[in-house]
Amino acid sequence: MTGSSFNADDLAQFKQTFFDECAELLADLEERLSSLQEEAADSEALNAIFRAVHSIKAGAGAFGFSQLVQFAHRYEALLDRMRDGLVEQNERVADVLVRAGDILASFVEAAQSEQELGEDFGSEVGDEIDLLLAEIDGLESVLTSEEEQSDENSDSEGVQEDQNKSSCTYLIEFVPKAELLRHANEPLLLIRELQTLGDLQTECSLERLPTLGAMEPEDAYLSWMLTLKTDKSEEDIREVFEFVEDDCELKVSAIAAKDSGDGSLSFQIIEEVTEESEEDQATGTLKSEKPGAQSKAAETSVPETNPSDAPKKANVAAPKAKTASTPAQSSGVSSIRVDLDRVDRLVNVVGELVIAQSMQAQEAEDRQNGHEFLMNQANEDMSRIVRELQECVMAIRMQPVKSVFSRMPRLVREVSSKLNKQVRLLTEGEQTEVDKTVIEELADPLTHMIRNAIDHGIESPEEREAAGKKGTGAIKLLARHAGGNIIIQVIDNGSGINKEALLKKAISKGIVSEDAKLTDEEIEELIFAPGFSTAQAVTDVSGRGVGMDVVRRNINKLGGRISVQSVEGKGTCFTLTIPLSLAVLDGMLVAIGAEKYILPLASIVESFRPLEEQLRALAGGGEVVSMRGEYIRLIRAHHLFNVPGAVTDPCQGLVVVTETANGGKVGLLVDELIGQQQVVIKSIQENFDPVPGVSGATILGNGRVALILDIEQLKSMPVSADNWKSSSSEPLEQQEASPANGEEQRTIAPEAMTDTEGMQVPATV
Amino acid sequence: MNDHVESPEQEEISGEPSSVQNGNFHQFISFKVGNEEFAIDIMAVREIKGWTETAPLPNQPDYNLGVLNLRGTIVPTFDLGCRFGMGSTKTTPYHVVIIATVQERTIGLLVDAVSDILTVSDDQIRPVPDMERMTAAEFLSGIITVEESMVVLLSLEKLFNRGDVTSATQIAA
To answer: What superfamily in CATH does domain A401-579 come from?
Structure first.
């Protein structure tokens, strides 16, 4: 593949790979930097940071992002000094490092979105780095220059890049393998050939030369470092080595800036960059035993132990990494990296499925012979395998929430410094896995909530000390699994929700009537009302009143719920409960008349058959059912959906009590519960308009379609919505046909009624 | 699975039946609803299958029969007879559902029976004469004479107009 030609498509693809990798590297960097702030880093952590920055730089160099390269280089230089122990790690240095990390991220973002950042972007931090460097170099001039020398040799690629900016110069590292000579190749000829291309400087390394006694006469021991000044392209240089590429380690890198960005870079160099960074990663992972990068390590080869076969291995690793991410790239969306283990498992299960299927086919043939027992066996096997298969496929989409969590430290830094507050962010359960789609949808709400927590929750240091707390506030972000859901909590130890102020504000905004008596929970719920903000003044951080209602809507869209608990003066805790996947749903199959519907299991609290005295029709058409002293609104599903033949007497049917997102309860009258079932969510909107009250559909075992009910929407559906079917109205319906708005005032989530989007069907897969 | 096949011919015919060109042949699938014969462009038809029970969707017009499962795809199905004001069809296993693609959506059409594939040239398609303002007339795009009997061409685009939907999605967005 090394000889293949190379076009714009490929370049775009490599760029995408580069940015994917950058994202991972930056996340890693971010994580390490934040630990740096807490304690001085050991050499391992510094190495990891250095590697991340270096890999980004190397990749950026290949694609000609010169601004990024320059900045990364300065950054790297500082890190390098730190590795050598020349820089004392203090707060100032840590701060510069962290800020430089942010700048680096901005550069990468800009490069990705093809935006131009201003010439002086990041120069402030850059200058600070330079200042630090100058100090160090001034203090330790003698020592440094020596060390640097040796250092720069080991890292020649990067440093030389800066030395030789204007001319078109290539640095060629040519390390023949032992068998090169035996394969009838002669390095001298190659070097002569190179000489014809331009101005060549050679440097021969005797490093690998063994003692005379150990020398094999037929083995190659010399290696060369060649500097070639030429107007030829890199491909021409590669061509010289075409016949020996399997027998040597070859690195060709452009040093000159002229080359950058014109797209004529060869295939190989890009490949080299990816290889290199992945190897970096792989070694890094092994060393640090950090589980975060494990998927990557699993994909690439084991770090080379035997230098002679390293290039071959790397060559294998690079294309593999590419194929893994290709399908996603072609559709223009982000790719995911999948643990090889998971793919293997999937392949195994599919294999089993094929066997089970053929078994079943066989049995079907033999059936006349009365082998029913075997048939059952095959069926059982099949259902087990299919279930497993589904789990495997789902697991591929699973990603640790770390990718979202790792964006938060930067946010906390930015927001808290803007507001002059001191905030520490603690995270827990970063490895908790959830569907990729969910992760993507989580970023916005979490950002919002953390911003809110810093702005409204955490007090200023003075206030905190006055209240007898530590000056530095803390925000805890934690994730864990609970059943089929992931629970994410954002906890702060700030001032908590001031319920009085909240209520006052709600009254002044007309969200609650003045004489309303609300429980504490109901008051806390108010922060999810649209147009609500308790911040004293609107800051540029938050407070424009498009806050928590949007968060709630986003979470609802994911099929999740959000709730809040708060103790005044102690802090606030937001809890998000989100299903692990948007593709399947744990549902309860219920019968209403001849139809079957699915209720999301997560929203079901309990079900019971009420006695007559538990029922009460309210004036205005509503109905309530009492359950242990609590009055719950009763919704007759068959009315809303016009299902004929359903049980109309609640005492004959079942009332399923469901909990809605804001904690309110609604009782749904159904005929009977059929059973619990995991269902695959199918979209109705793909071929039809959104249907109120229905969030999607699924296909039952008998091939028929069952609709998945959306409790939130059912709640806000007027019974009189039946303006289509005038012919099939039942007598009972007239009773309730009058607008049922009266009882809806009881719920304290006005958005459900007023918001037109409340009627919108949540997006399904 | 040619979801996106919308031949230019089809638009020409369904949109402007008056712009006839000699020598251009088109194929239509004709089917029976009640006692009448209708036809739709063959390019819009994906498959024809026997009637299976559907799951009714709540609060839809009478002619919406609900959704059926077409190998994992949820397909809304419509009773053409009911749509044309002939009353709801009493379905039997002998009824037929034509699966068609209209504006990138897959829908099912309940008809009594599929009759034939018609190959006609443009000049055989007669325009629908100006009627008094009848709602139904909008989705009739032409009339073909086949062996002394009339076959009415339907424009599925006009029959299943998505105008309302798009405006609704715009508002939501």
So the answer is: Histidine kinase-like ATPase, C-terminal domain (3.30.565.10)
DSSP B130: P
Give me the residues of chain A with pLDDT under 70, please. Answer: 1-8, 37-41, 119, 137-167, 256-335, 367-375, 483-484, 530-546, 661-663, 718-765
In this complex, is the C-beta atom of B54 within 8 Å of any C-beta atom belonging to chain A?
yes
- Give the closest of A595, A721, A722 to B56, CB-based: A595
Chain A, chain B: beta-carbon pairs less than 8 Å apart: 87
Q: Any idea which of A712-721, B51-60, B76-85 has the lowest mean pLDDT?
A: A712-721
pLDDT at B29: 92
**Residue A209 at interface with chain B, using a CB cutoff of 8 Å:** no
* Cβ-nearest to A727 among B62, B107, B171: B62
Alpha-carbon gap, residue A493 to A398, rounded angstroms? 31
Complex ipTM: 0.72
- Out of B61, B72, B171, the one facing A724 most closely (by C-beta) is B61
Q: Fold for A340-397, please state it.
A: Helix Hairpins (1.10.287)
pLDDT digits 0-9 by tens, A621-666: 778 888 888 888 888 878 777 777 777 777 888 888 888 766 678 8
- Per-position b or e across A96-109, b if 16+ CB within 10 A of its CB: bbbbbbbbbbbbbe
With contact defined as beta carbons under 8 Å apart, do A288 and A197 qualify? no
Q: What is the 3-state secondary structure (H, E, C) of A133-196?
A: HHHHHHHCHHHHHHHHHHHHHHCHHHHHHHHCCCCCEEEEEEEECHHHCCCCCCHHHHHHHHHC
**Which of B69, B74, B164 minimises the CB distance to A703?**
B69
Domains of chain A, residue spans: 8-148, 161-296, 340-397, 401-579, 584-732
What pLDDT, on a 0 to 100 scale, did the predictor assign at position A156? 43
* Whole-number pLDDT of residue B20: 40
pTM: 0.49
Instruction: Give the mutation candidate from B51, B52, B59 for the A interface (greatest A CB count, under 10 A).
Output: B59
Residues B84, B80: Cα–Cα separation, whole Å: 6
CATH code reported for the domain at A584-732: 2.30.30.40
- Predicted confidence (pLDDT) at residue B120 exceeds the cutoff of 80: yes
Question: CB distance from B57 to chain A under 8 Å?
Answer: yes
Domain made up of A161-296: CATH architecture: 2-Layer Sandwich (3.30)
Nearest chain A residue to B88 by CA distance is A727
Chain B residues with beta carbon closer than 8 angstroms to that of A690: 168
Instruction: Output the CA torsion sign for A147, A149, A153, A157.
Output: positive
Contacts of B60 in chain A (CB under 8 A): 691, 724
SS3 state at A267: helix
Say yes or no: A756 contacts chain B, CB-CB below 8 A. yes
- Predicted local confidence at residue A741, as pLDDT: 38
Architecture of domain A8-148: Up-down Bundle (1.20)
